[in-house]
Design brief:
By secondary structure, chain A is an alpha/beta fold. Chain A has 14 helices and eleven strands. Chains A and B meet through helix 1, strand 1, helix 4 and helix 5 of A and helix 1, strand 1, helix 4 and helix 5 of B. The structure holds a DNA duplex. Chains A, B: It comes from Paracoccus homiensis.
DNA sequence: CCTGCCGATGGGCAAATACTCGATCAAGGG
DNA sequence: CCCTTGATCGAGTATTTGCCCATCGGCAGG
């Protein structure tokens, strides 16, 4: 028999294991354990606690969700987020929006259930659109929905990916569309535009938003800004040269998540991104193409929450 | 994405998994889970319970003791015991007595801690001796220690393996040695002996014992009865022919744990083994050599408790 | 359309569990 | 030798958890 087998510490750990077994495996109460081990109830409690703190008991969750929760916690910690949700990816279609849309919708729904008035501000994009489509109809006249950016395409038509109106209609809440185009022609025009009272009011609402949901756009040739015609090839190249990797509500940022000081951003009419830590700004984004954009947004603290897919979360944690 | 991925049942299980993860992995309270998932505390409780009942959570104990507790439960169930304790074996010395002696001593100690008067009856043997040696000195004048059998060797000297005196001395309790030799010359002499008041009194104490600790003896050429000179080669052979596989306090029994009706047993002067189920009769025994004797004793219900080693418990469960 | 049934929900309460605090005790240093 | 230090214990208390039950809402059948 090994030396030290019966030292006090070993005995104590043995008892902890015994108590842990009786508690977690056999389902005894701590009272029963105390009786069986011949100690006080408090000591039994301490033994069970020790079994946990000494990592003698290992819990495993046999469910795909478990892995997602692990990833979510890791992402949250790595990037200092206040909230993070990871949704299982279908290996055959890892970039499908349905999953994260459902998750985002339930997060949104959770906030909407509140009786207090909440200001919900939205960006644009396919993720947002899909999210709102997952939301059940509810009656929430106490809340306010506000758009963080204009929805006018360059040809003057409304963007099909603006979800504000649809959300407001679904939940029966008043809504504030963003009364400006996406881009001004120059910064002077922008100054003029922003001096309007309606604009100032809308921006103020955005700043006070109790929940902001935004998409994240990548900055390659598949970029929403480019595909939707806001940025032409030449400007796209210019932005790429300036280090742009992503955009949130049209604000273009670099790989460190810093909003780039450039001609384009000086024309962006969208509401400024909230910087206060306690204003939840949640990004809804997934997919290989958006990965650098998502990582940069997290690094730069442009958002403090993320809803993404399992595959994307894994890539965010790689290296 | 798989069909049925978002059916109510799947969503519910997902939530259960989520709740289970938050509870067991992240250490949240059910209240916090309720808040995070946006449900009532009761629902959160139901989700956690579901995660358990649906076997989503698996607990594992990383400690040698855990395996012992599993074995103990299995042995207890297989043989219908009221108590069973299994002690880790050292693979290099699986039959060492120290481990089970410590376990037996703490079981004994647990009983001795009681303020009510307890009658402790003891058999003989190396296991018992070792057990008492592991017992710390205590002051228990309220209890009574009584021997279940004589300790006289055939040459008239006292057996060195009688633990009664030592136990009584260690715990400061009155003790009753067994006032007869191990064997009478014949059943007539036994009848005479047992008619003595002191003997009847001692046997009555044994019958009322609140805890009986006994050893188990094998019946081959290494048998304690033989080694200690109570049974010679010829009689040993005779008993083996009658099917004897083991003995407890000198009562010899067969493979089914039935006390054999034979000349030898008719000379045994020891107190009868208690049959009442509620009298704890705990065997302290381990080792490959004793295995058939232990198994038979358990099968026949000669004891209702067992303290043994991991290796022995495994063998008891084999097949 | 109404009605009764079934499962889910949340309030309330008792049991179980975790934490705080002062008392006690053994080990080690002055 | 005594004192300090740190650990452990049990009592008491606050928190958490499990369960019962009245109620609600959806749904199938009349």
């Amino acid at each position: 028999m090994t030396t030290g087998r019966f030292t006090p510490e070993a005995t104590r750990l043995d008892d902890a294991a015994r108590a842990g077994w009786l508690y977690y495996v056999a389902g005894n109460t701590q009272d029963e354990i105390a009786r069986k081990l011949g100690v006080s109830r408090q000591s039994a409690q301490r033994l069970v606690a020790m079994a946990v703190s000494e990592k003698l008991v290992k819990v495993r969750l046999d469910h795909p969700i478990a892995r997602c929760m692990d990833l979510a916690l890791s992402v949250q910690q790595k990037y200092g987020l206040t909230q993070c949700e990871v949704v299982p990816s279908d290996p055959e279609a890892p970039d499908l929006l349905t999953g994260i849309a459902i998750a985002a919708a339930s997060e949104l729904e959770r906030v909407l259930k509140s009786d207090e008035r909440k200001i919900i501000s939205l960006g644009t994009g396919r993720s947002l659109k899909a999210t709102v489509e997952q939301l059940p109809r509810m009656s929430c006249p106490q809340h306010i929905v506000v758009s963080r950016l204009g929805n006018m395409m360059s040809d003057g038509s409304a963007s099909p990916f603006n979800a504000t109106i649809q959300l407001a209609e679904r939940i029966g809440a008043p809504h504030y569309p963003y009364p400006l185009p996406v881009l001004a022609h120059d910064s002077d025009e922008l100054t003029t535009m922003k001096s309007q009272e309606a604009v100032r009011n809308t921006i103020a609402l955005c700043e006070r938003a109790d929940l902001s949901l935004v998409g994240i756009g990548q900055m390659d040739m598949t970029a929403p800004l480019h595909v939707d015609g806001f940025v032409d090839n030449a400007e796209m190249q210019e932005l790429a040269d300036a280090g742009a990797v992503g955009e949130i509500t049209s604000w273009v940022y670099d790989a460190q998540g810093r909003i780039i000081d450039c001609a384009f951003n000086r024309r962006v009419a969208s509401a400024p991104l909230p910087r206060a830590e306690d204003r939840p700004v949640v990004a809804i984004a997934s997919g290989e193409a958006k990965l650098p954009a998502i990582r940069a947004a997290l690094l730069g603290g442009l958002v403090n929450g993320l809803i993404t897919s399992e595959a994307t979360a894994e890539r965010l944690l790689a290296r």
